[in-house]
């Protein structure tokens, strides 16, 4: 493993901007590169010989996850109305959030085609677990999410009867108890 | 927790293609996650179902207080500080002092608490401790009298939760009892309506007094999990948030019950309650040994 | 009436402490501090540890002998306050609290204390320049401080700054630098001309200096603060060599202030070594676990 000498704390000077590129966990101020997180110093060689290696600091205590644009998030539907579904974002890029963030999936962001025919109520129901992508930081309260891709949509759901739902097509799910078919925007299993 | 390499238990969810890490799965399906462990007779933190977390007690940690104690129960840390002040007694009990316990669950100790006046849980715990101290007559309030009808001691027992990880009641009550046993108050003198205490020399047995504790009640709590009401001793935060209810058994040093409380979880059998009492007896002895070792 | 707490008597007071006539109180004398083992430039030994609060994103506990406080950092998390507009920058929210038993006099916690409010504000001003808030849009970082025991107002604030910046780093939040805090008090030493205290027998010194001599005591405790003429608290980023916050109270002449700022910067470098060590320790621990 890495030696103690590679362990750095925020503010520690790591090198000169002429020798390295600024990588994750570092920042440049005037002529020097400094660490901005606690972690291990790593120099990443990249690309051709003419390119500078990246100076990075591998975090030791990862910051709790926050949604970023294009991140894939896992969320739970809390409310639906004809214009959008409100969700609590629980996991960002595989990292659970300590506190849930709010997001909405607007009706025009549910799927990529035939956007005018989408009905929120036939796509999501409260309680569903949905995989979605962050498309914008949204307004003061919510992030805007999209499920307009095959692998995005409902991944777990509970039927009206209380059984769990299994996807049978990209817009239908079947209850394991009663065999009743319910409508959802399903995620294609990866 | 991540060392338990539990990817999605496939049989629970009928979508075999979605796999998650253990921590993600716990976040999405906390109860399912827990059931997996409980069915094996263990808990995610490695404890057995009736295991309590390691406990330490330190007394006299705060020098600005008359008595103090810090109790750590796994990830839960509480500090109890007792300050003695002089007040006028109530008209109907002119020779009795005051004993005022209050628990502070600040937003520092967990994200579950908001700043501002005490929340529901803080009120419930404060009240439960107040009731145990009063009903079990832990302290004879007459011992706190300075001059009948004129002046008595008020013991402000403030419990600050530094780190919250479940089972605050057990930790808080233990810290109160340890701090009460640690209290030293300088001998007061009453003259013309003014209470004076002698300062200067170091506090010693000659110039101060200790409190006489009639009983030392200590509690043991259990969470009731799932519809089967499996008992989980000393629940941590994650366990508390998914439990159906909680049973707390408070026992004194003579193995006598001081208080029993059961919150939530519909109905439970007598056998379940007996099981709790038996385990609480053992636990109370262990905890007493830890406290007296101090 | 407060129905959310167990009620006590409406009014209660601390008993009057009566000192015997022959009792010798500490007064600021030449080169001698309240704790005789300390030199004027000495700080109290610092104990600093991370990761005490299991639920928090980052936490730190600091102890300077009798000054003890805990700090918990939560976040970045969504903004809870409704009515706050969209913000492209993160918000650093600090809350400073004393436990009721933290000071010599009991604090009543039923109302928000103006002193706590002021300290909260100072703390966030001292820390914000070091945190890269531009990376955290729409989020808030909450920093909570609880003082368990206070021995010196200035040292308490300085310790809070130190602990909070370590807790922020422990939470994995991107920062430009750590912020070390340090306090200093200046006081008139030697036989006092204006008798501020009940002096009995200390005026026997020969050759009284006409001009009062000012001595800087670093990291003063409560007893020393009673005699101070003024004090400063400095928040400083040691590796960038920048001051983030400077608070000066009381009466002092320019050179004294300059000198104490210099002393504080020097001391901050010592504090930085402790912070550095504590964070590396926390790394080792997380590796062992």
Give an overview in words.
The complex is a heterotrimer of chains A (190), B (294) and C (289). Chain A starts with 6 loop residues before the first strand and ends in a 7-residue tail after the last strand. Chain A has a 5-stranded mixed beta barrel with strand order 8-9-10-12-11. In chain A, strands 1-6-7-3 form a 4-stranded mixed beta sheet, with no helix packed on it. By secondary structure, chain A is an all-beta fold. Chain B has 294 residues and is α+β, with helices and mostly antiparallel strands. Chain B has a domain of 156 residues: Ribosomal Protein S5, domain 2. In chain B, the strands form 4 sheets. In chain B, strands 1, 2, 3, 4, 5 and 6 form a 6-stranded mixed beta sheet that branches. In chain C, helix 1 packs across helix 2. Chains A and C meet through strand 10 of A and strand 5 and helix 4 of C. Strand 3 of chain B pairs antiparallel with strand 1 of chain C. Chain B: Keywords: Cytoplasm, Exosome, Nucleus, RNA-binding, rRNA processing. Chain B: It is found in: Cytoplasm; Nucleus, Nucleolus.
Q: In terms of topology, how is this protein built?
A:
The complex is a heterotrimer of chains A (about 190), B (about 290) and C (about 290).
Chain A: E1 7-8, E2 13-16, E3 21-22, E4 26-29, E5 32-35, E6 39-44, E7 54-59, E8 72-80, E9 84-92, E10 95-106, E11 129-136, E12 143-146, E13 153-156, E14 165-169, E15 172-175, E16 181-183
Chain B: H1 22-28, H2 30-38, E1 55-59, E2 67-73, E3 76-87, E4 98-104, H3 120-135, E5 145-147, E6 151-163, H4 168-182, E7 184-186, E8 188-191, E9 194-198, E10 208-210, E11 218-225, E12 230-233, H5 237-242, E13 245-251, E14 257-264, H6 270-292
Parallel strand pairs in B: 4-6
Antiparallel strand pairs in B: 1-2, 2-3, 3-6, 5-6, 7-10, 8-9, 11-12, 11-13, 13-14
Chain C: E1 12-13, E2 16-18, E3 46-50, E4 58-64, E5 67-78, E6 91-98, H1 114-127, E7 139-149, H2 153-170, E8 180-189, E9 213-218, H3 222-225, E10 230-237, E11 242-250, H4 254-288
Parallel strand pairs in C: 6-7
Antiparallel strand pairs in C: 3-4, 4-5, 5-7, 8-9, 8-10, 10-11
Helix pairs in contact in C: 1-2, 2-4
């Amino acid at each position: 493993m890495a030696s103690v000498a590679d362990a750095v704390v925020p503010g520690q000077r790591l090198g000169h901007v002429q020798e390295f590129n600024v990588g994750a966990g570092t920042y440049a101020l005037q002529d020097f590169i400094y660490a901005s997180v606690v972690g291990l110093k790593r120099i990443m060689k990249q690309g051709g010989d003419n390119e500078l290696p990246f100076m990075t600091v591998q975090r030791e205590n990862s910051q709790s996850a926050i949604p970023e644009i294009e991140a894939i998030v896992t969320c739970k539907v809390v409310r639906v109305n004809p214009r959008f579904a409100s969700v609590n974002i629980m996991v960002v890029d595989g990292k659970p959030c300590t506190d849930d963030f709010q997001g909405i999936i607007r009706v025009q962001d549910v799927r990529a085609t035939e956007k005018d025919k989408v009905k929120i109520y036939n796509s999501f129901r409260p309680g569903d677990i949905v995989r979605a992508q962050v498309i914008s930081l949204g307004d003061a309260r919510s992030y805007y999410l999209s499920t307009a891709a095959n692998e995005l949509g409902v991944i777990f759901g509970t039927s009206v009867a209380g059984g769990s739902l299994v996807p049978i097509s990209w817009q239908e799910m079947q209850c394991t108890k009663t065999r009743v078919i319910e409508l959802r925007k399903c995620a294609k299993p990866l | 927790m991540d060392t338990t390499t539990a990817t999605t238990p496939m049989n629970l969810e009928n979508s075999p293609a979605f796999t998650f890490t253990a921590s993600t799965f716990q976040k999405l399906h906390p109860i399912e996650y827990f059931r997996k462990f409980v069915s094996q007779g263990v808990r995610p933190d490695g404890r057995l179902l009736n295991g309590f977390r390691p406990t330490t007690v330190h007394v006299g940690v705060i020098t600005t207080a008359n008595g103090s104690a810090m109790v750590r129960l796994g990830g839960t840390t509480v500090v109890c500080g007792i300050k003695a002040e002089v007040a006028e007694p109530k008209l109907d009990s002119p020779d009795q002092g005051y004993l005022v316990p209050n628990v502070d669950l600040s937003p520092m100790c967990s994200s579950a608490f908001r700043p501002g006046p005490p929340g529901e849980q803080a009120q419930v715990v404060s009240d439960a401790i107040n009731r145990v101290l009063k009903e079990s007559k832990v302290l004879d309030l007459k011992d706190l009298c300075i001059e009948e009808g004129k002046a008595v001691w008020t013991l402000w027992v403030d419990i600050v939760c530094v780190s919250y990880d479940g089972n605050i009641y057990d930790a808080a009550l233990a810290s109160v009892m340890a701090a009460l046993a640690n209290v030293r108050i300088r001998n007061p003198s009453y003259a013309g309506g003014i209470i004076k205490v002698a300062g200067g020399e170091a506090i010693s047995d000659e110039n101060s007094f200790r409190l006489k504790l009639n009983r030392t009640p200590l509690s043991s709590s259990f969470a009731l999990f799932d519809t089967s009401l499996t008992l989980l001793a000393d629940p941590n935060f994650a366990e508390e948030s998914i439990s159906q209810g909680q049973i707390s058994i408070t026992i004194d040093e003579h193995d006598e019950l001081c208080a029993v409380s059961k919150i939530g979880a519909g109905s439970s059998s007598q056998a379940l309650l007996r099981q709790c009492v038996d385990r609480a007896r053992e636990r109370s002895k262990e905890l007493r040994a830890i406290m007296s070792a101090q | 009436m407060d129905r959310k707490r167990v009620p006590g008597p409406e009014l209660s007071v601390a008993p009057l402490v009566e000192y015997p006539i022959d009792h010798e109180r500490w007064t600021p004398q030449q080169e001698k501090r309240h704790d005789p083992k300390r030199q004027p430039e000495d700080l109290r030994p610092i104990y600093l540890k991370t990761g005490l609060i299991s639920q928090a994103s980052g936490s730190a506990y600091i102890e300077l002998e009798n000054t003890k406080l805990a700090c918990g950092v939560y976040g970045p998390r969504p903004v809870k306050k409704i009515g706050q507009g969209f913000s492209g920058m993160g918000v650093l929210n600090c809350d400073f609290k004393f436990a009721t038993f933290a000071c010599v006099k009991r604090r009543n916690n039923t109302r928000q204390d103006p002193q706590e409010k002021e300290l909260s504000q100072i703390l966030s001003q001292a820390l914000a320049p070091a945190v890269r808030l531009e990376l955290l849009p729409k989020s808030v970082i909450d920093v909570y401080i609880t003082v368990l025991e206070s021995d010196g107002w200035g040292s308490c604030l300085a310790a809070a700054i130190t602990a909070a910046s370590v807790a922020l780093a422990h939470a994995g939040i991107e920062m430009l630098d750590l912020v070390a805090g340090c306090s200093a008090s200046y006081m008139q030493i030697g036989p006092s001309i204006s008798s501020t205290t009940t002096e009995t027998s200390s005026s026997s010194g020969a050759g009284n200096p006409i001009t009062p001599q000012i001595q800087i005591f670093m990291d003063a405790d409560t007893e020393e603060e009673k005699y101070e003429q003024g004090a400063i608290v400095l928040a400083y980023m040691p590796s960038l060599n920048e001051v983030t916050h400077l608070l000066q109270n009381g009466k002092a002449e320019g050179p004294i202030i300059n000198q104490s700022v210099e002393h504080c910067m020097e001391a901050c470098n010592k504090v930085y070594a402790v912070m550095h060590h504590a964070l590396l320790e926390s790394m080792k621990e997380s590796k062992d676990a």
